[in-house]
Each structure stands twice: as C-alpha cells, then as structure tokens.
Specification:
320 residues, 23% strand
Length: 320
C-alpha cells in the first residue's frame, strides 16, 4: 500500500532526510533521483510531500533502503545558502562584545541578506561582561535602527528570560535559527535557554581567538508546545560561519539595496532626485538623516561598501 504524508524536513545527513509530520511523527526518507537533474536539493525547513511504501517499510531485509521517498518540495518562502535552510521566519544573530571582537560591517551585510529574504533579524550580544561599553553601544545603535536587541553574558545570564519570552510568542510552525561566528557563545546560550537540547560546545582557540566549529549539520528541534496545546514551531542550531560564508550576497540588485536597511525605508522617495543613489547627492533624505544622527553613520558606511560591491554587477553576474 502506498500512502502520502506532508511534513517539514528537520534533518538531512548523507542523503537521508527526516520529515516531521504535523502530528509529531517522524519518517526517514531519501529524495527522488530526479531532483538532481532539476538542480533541486531538499533543505532543512522545506515543506515536502513524502510517499511511503508500507510493504517495503515492513520488510526486515531492506538494509539501507527505505520505503519512504521525498517526492515533492513545496514552494519556499525563502532560502539561505549558508546555513542551508528554507522557510525561516526569525534569525537570532549572535555576536560577542569581545573575544572575538564583532565585525559590524559583516553584521550589517548579514542583516541586509535577512531583510531581503524577509527573515526577521534579532540581535543577541553576548559576553557583555568583557566589554560592557561596546555591548551597550551595539544595543543603542541597532535598536535605533529598529531591530530587537538582547544583551547577555555567561556569568549572570542577563536577559535570558527576555529572550525566552520572545521565543514564547512563536506559534503555528514558526522556524527560528541561531547563527553566529565561531566562538561567540551561540551553543552555550542555546544550552542555557533550552537545556534539553544538550548541544555540543567548543573551546576558544587561544592562538586565533576563534572557536572550533562544533555544529556539523542543521537540525530543527521542536519547541515546547503552547499552553493551549498548539504546536509552537522549530528551533535550529546552525553551523558556525566565518567571514567568507556570506560573501556571495549579491543576488539582489543595487537598486534593491536601500530597502535592506530598514532605517532607510522611511526616507526613500523623499530625496530631491528620483534616481538618488544615497551616496553623496545634495538633497538626499537619507544623508540628511545621517547628518541629523537619526541614522547611525556607521550603518551608512556599511551601505556605501555594499553599494560599491554591487554597482558594477551585471544581471547575468547576480547569484541565484
């Protein structure tokens, strides 16, 4: 007997995918071969259709074979190259105040990618006890730009309750992920928030002040149910990434770039020139907002760097 089920891919290792049905049951399956010819790869977070051959599933001699086949990938709301995930709703971006020092240019680039993909970014600044002034500067700057920001440290676990409260609002299959450069304390933070996950953590390398990569594959964990019994959603631990993982960000155009800076958006359309690049024109509303300190100058500096990287890209050179 052949039956069908619909669910979410929660793991994918070595070509074997685990699909969680909406009722909580999990099925291991392999993807149909035609996906390779179509240039498609199932991603964690994908909503999929699976066909199950019950007779094959019940055989004792099937070895490495499985009677379940991932037959269809439903349209994605969004997808990221690294971490390789689909249909994200919220990304908790973890950055340390020190050890390693934060790269605000890289952070701004990552926030642009998330904005473009319509994934809500939430910034968590860790190790605030090592550099409290910088941690508060980061909070002030990014809250001013309209981002939710939490500041915490390992000693006092400050604001952990606020982060948990933010997560408690999720429902109806929300997919959230934590990401951050190696050594920022991402897995340590997640273990504090969700002790039952028991995620592996790594020590900081004293020579290079960067953590060893301890997370090997994306895995979606089910969040505790809502108080009324509804399924809340998923939480992902994602591989630590380096400065190079998001260098292929240019799948959007230079014309779309201003819209990926959320604090720019209220000013767009108010410039003197309709084709204002927001780089140096007289009468630019965004430059005026920077001058009046309504927009942090460092954010506009990040915009200029990304603008220079994108302005000479032709359509056929864009990443897809």
């Amino acid at each position: 007997m052949i039956r069908e089920l619909t669910g979410t891919v929660v793991r994918g290792v070595g070509g074997l995918y685990t699909v969680r049905e909406d009722d909580g049951c999990e099925t291991d399956c392999r993807a149909k071969g035609t996906f390779r010819h179509e240039g498609m790869t199932p991603l964690v977070g994908d909503r999929v259709r699976v066909t199950v051959d019950d007779e094959m599933e019940n055989r004792q001699d099937r070895g490495a074979q499985t009677g379940a086949l991932l037959a269809e990938i439903y349209p994605r709301r969004n997808a990221l190259i690294r971490p390789a995930m689909a249909n994200l709703d919220v990304m908790f971006v973890v950055a340390a105040a020190k050890d390693p020092d934060p790269s605000l240019r890289f952070l701004d680039k990552l926030l642009c990618i998330l904005e473009y993909q319509e994934i809500e970014p939430v910034l968590i600044v860790t190790k605030a006890d090592l550099e409290p002034h910088r941690a508060e500067q980061m909070r002030t700057k990014y809250e001013k730009c309209g981002f939710p920001v939490f500041v915490t440290d390992a000693e006092t676990a400050s604001e952990d309750e606020r982060i948990a409260g933010y997560l408690a609002r999720f429902d109806d299959g929300t997919i959230a992920a934590f990401c951050g450069a190696s050594g920022v304390g991402k897995s340590t933070l997640m273990n504090r928030l969700f002790p039952h996950l028991d995620l592996e953590t790594g020590e900081i390398s004293e020579k290079i002040a960067r953590g060893k990569h301890t997370t090997r594959a994306v895995h979606l964990f089910s969040l505790p149910q809502c108080s009324d019994g509804r399924f809340r959603g998923y939480l992902a631990d994602t591989p630590g990434f380096s400065m190079l993982d998001f260098v292929r960000f240019d799948f959007f155009s230079v014309e779309e770039l201003p819209y990926t800076f959320r604090e720019f958006v209220p000013q767009i359309g108010r410039c003197r020139y309709t084709k204002c690049t927001h780089t140096r024109e007289d009468g630019c509303a965004i430059l005026d907002a920077v001058a009046q300190k309504q927009i942090p100058k460092s954010r506009h500096t990040s915009y200029l760097e990304l603008y220079d990287a994108l302005k000479d890209k032709k359509d056929w050179m864009k990443e897809t």
